[in-house]
Amino acid sequence: MLTLDEAQSIVLSNVSALPAEPAGLVDALGRVLTTPVTAQVPLPPFDNSAMDGYAVVAEDTRGATPGSPRLLQIIDDIAAGVVPERTVAPGTAAQIMTGAMMPPGADAVVIVEHTRPGAPGAVEVFVPVKPGDNVRPAGEDIERGQEALSPGQVMGPGELALAAALGYVTVDVVRRPRVAIVTTGSELVEPGRELRTGAIYNSNQTLLSCRVLAAGAAVGERLHVEDDERAVEDALARCAEADMILTTGGVSVGEYDFVKAALERLGEMKFWQVRIKPGKPVAFGTVNGRPLFGLPGNPVSAMVTFELLVAPALRKMSGRTQCLPPTVQATLASGVSHKPGRREYRQAVTRSEGRGYVTDPSPKRGSAMLTSTVGANSLVVIPEESEGLKSGEQGTVIYPANGM
Amino acid sequence: MLTLDEAQSIVLSNVSALPAEPAGLVDALGRVLTTPVTAQVPLPPFDNSAMDGYAVVAEDTRGATPGSPRLLQIIDDIAAGVVPERTVAPGTAAQIMTGAMMPPGADAVVIVEHTRPGAPGAVEVFVPVKPGDNVRPAGEDIERGQEALSPGQVMGPGELALAAALGYVTVDVVRRPRVAIVTTGSELVEPGRELRTGAIYNSNQTLLSCRVLAAGAAVGERLHVEDDERAVEDALARCAEADMILTTGGVSVGEYDFVKAALERLGEMKFWQVRIKPGKPVAFGTVNGRPLFGLPGNPVSAMVTFELLVAPALRKMSGRTQCLPPTVQATLASGVSHKPGRREYRQAVTRSEGRGYVTDPSPKRGSAMLTSTVGANSLVVIPEESEGLKSGEQGTVIYPANGM
């Protein structure tokens, strides 16, 4: 049986970044840039005032004090967005607003708090300035022609604001993966319907739709099929437009495991078991070159295998370079027992405390125990041969704090 | 001038959680529950098999070994979702699928890997089981009538899957705040248009729209107005339906600061300066009981004041109880200088490394330096009276890793 590391490497070698597309700036949030954003204009585009105040010839203010202010004639009032036309000559000043263009002749700005009204039409400056004070020179942040954002950059609010500041309306980013979700199982009833004896409510459709959205991907087809070979194959055919197919159930060793059978017939099965707990019966393959994950039917197993195998694939398809689940070292707030054999992933509540992390694993180990996920934000890793982890010990925790 | 702590406390005492509404499960992702989710059915709803195998009378398997297996007659084949009708008597077994209902008479399941075909219509069991082995009893995870999810719970994929498993189609969650964004400034030109001399591109509209969405809130009106008293007031009037209004620009000490003037006339100004850097000129007040933040016009200042003041308000309005920005202690990867006076927040790239965090502050301090935000995911706090932080020193970092 494959180790998780082997399974992850098979998954990642069978998926690649999706094609790029131009996207409006807000629509590009969280996506990965593919074409550089270059400065078509310098930033700032022109010398401008960093503060509200008076544009002056710095030399004029030399030695100014509250007791011995310098009186300057006001020759202009420069609002942001206008082009100043009058030159500030020695002995004069122009009132200027934050962000407004520096007038010719002036080489510094005295902030309004360091001035007071002088004679009519004049201002008294009582703190001296040096040339360049409170002036933002053109190109200070970025010069024309420079590469502002490079391919591979994850576009957050700051990066997208920078693209806007450079005049961009769209940027080229990797397309969002569109994920089809097919739940299987004749025992599943949709929430809201009557629950007949022997049946349970379908929770995997909700689980996976939410987790896909939290990963920044889009949900495509949402289907449910009975345990029937033909129905499973038809459902997979209906997902032909998806970038990835997720199924739940039907991948174990039983006679009703039609997903496994369909994958073997329609596509190429890469693996169908991994030495982890929960989540051993997890299949991966490709159908028409597109990845298909056959996740276990138990919701906790589906959740764990999503974090360990599906999320890395979505990251790679989204153009990210760090694809494996992010881990931290944490102090266990409570112990967990373990039967040596498979590597175990236990739902846990992890928080940062001072300089490090503390993690509190759920005592509920069952792969159908959905209540173990309540409040959980992470998975404690219990090594294969371990007999458990003690309270106070250090452990590795998968902590995908920022969703993706 | 107010300290940040005072300003945050004024903000939080002037906003409250928005009303609840029923939401479909996927639409409730990331929102806060207001009405308990209780178990209308136990989970699991009935005794069922945890594995693919054979339902047996455990006593029948006592002492079974590969060399001395027990032969049991197969009386049934129980698929998931059906109600078994035949009773498993001693000497018999029913083939059973994971999740299928346990048949009357059986008290354990032998996994299929511990069996082999026997005589026609029979199975050989070569590993013994005890009563209850591989059986999930009804109510093991949660019993009927128990509270599964309590008000205040943030609804992630696991919590929503649990609600689905209990048959819920909708849950009651706090309404998403709808945020109107009004940028002001005659110097601003929308990206894509021609940039006239003295003008700059509007980046704040993009910045704030993205940051609001990343916080799980919705963007309402998106307006831009010139520096004109009447235009600003008209714009605020058009945002009457929003739960919160954000403006940028027009809140300083200059003569063009129409946002401050409008807030004073139309609503109630609570404060308009905070002792932080960047972001000193930030106003907060209420208009018709709704919060209005007058953020500075410089994009880096707008970003910092969003994290420090707006994000906490959005958390409280969204029903969260931990509202202040989350902080961690981190080792500085490089030093930063600081002029004693206002508390400074510097853009930084923070990552977890081993048991702790490392943070690398941007050397760019300017409040208009948008490139300082590229790749940044956090803000290093430089205390008021500090002369800077040295490389290798510990510092406090605002690290809102999970967006909200």
Shape type of chain A: elongated
**Mean pLDDT figure of chain A:** 94
CATH fold call of the largest domain in chain A = Molybdenum Cofactor Biosythetic Enzyme, Chain A
Q: Spell out the CATH superfamily of the largest domain in chain A.
A: MoaB/Mog-like domain
Brief overview:
Chain A has helices at residues 4-13, 157-165, 204-214, 229-238, 258-266, 299-317, and strands spanning 20-24, 37-38, 48-49, 53-56, 70-78, 92-96, 108-111, 115-117, 122-125, 135-136, 147-149, 170-174, 178-184, 188-189, 200-201, 218-225, 244-248, 268-271, 276-277, 283-287, 290-295, 327-332, 336-337, 343-353, 356-361, 378-382, 388-389, 394-398. The first copy, chain A, is an alpha/beta fold and 404 residues long.
Layout of secondary structure:
The structure is a homodimer of 404-residue chains.
Chain A lengths: L3 H10 L6 E5 L12 E2 L9 E2 L3 E4 L13 E9 L13 E5 L11 E4 L3 E3 L4 E4 L9 E2 L10 E3 L7 H9 L4 E5 L3 E7 L3 E2 L10 E2 L2 H11 L3 E8 L3 H10 L5 E5 L9 H9 L1 E4 L4 E2 L5 E5 L2 E6 L3 H19 L9 E6 L3 E2 L5 E11 L2 E6 L16 E5 L5 E2 L4 E5 L6
Parallel strand pairs in A: 5-6, 13-16, 13-17, 14-15, 17-21, 19-24, 22-25
Antiparallel strand pairs in A: 1-12, 2-11, 3-10, 4-6, 4-7, 5-9, 8-9, 18-20, 20-21, 22-28, 23-27, 24-25, 24-26, 26-28
Question: What do these coordinates show?
Answer:
Two copies of one chain form a homodimer. With 404 residues, chain A is of the alpha/beta class. Chain A has four domains: 4-17 and 176-317, MoaB/Mog-like domain (Molybdenum Cofactor Biosythetic Enzyme, Chain A), CATH 3.40.980; 20-41 and 148-174, Molybdopterin biosynthesis moea protein, domain 2; 48-136, Molybdopterin biosynthesis moea protein, domain 3 (Molybdopterin biosynthesis moeA protein, domain 3, Beta Complex); 327-398, Beta-clip. Chain A has six helices and 28 strands. Chain A has helices at residues 4-13, 157-165, 204-214, 229-238, 258-266, 299-317; strands at residues 20-24, 37-38, 48-49, 53-56, 70-78, 92-96, 108-111, 115-117, 122-125, 135-136, 147-149, 170-174, 178-184, 188-189, 200-201, 218-225, 244-248, 268-271, 276-277, 283-287, 290-295, 327-332, 336-337, 343-353, 356-361, 378-382, 388-389, 394-398. A six-stranded mixed sheet of chain A has the order 7-4-6-5-9-8, with no helix packed on it. In chain A, strands 16-13-17-21-20-18 form a six-stranded mixed sheet, sandwiched between helices. In chain A, strand 20 and strand 21 form a beta hairpin. In chain A, helix 3 runs parallel beside helix 6 (299-317). The radius of gyration of chain A is 31 Å and the shape is elongated. The interface between A and B is large, with 107 and 107 residues.
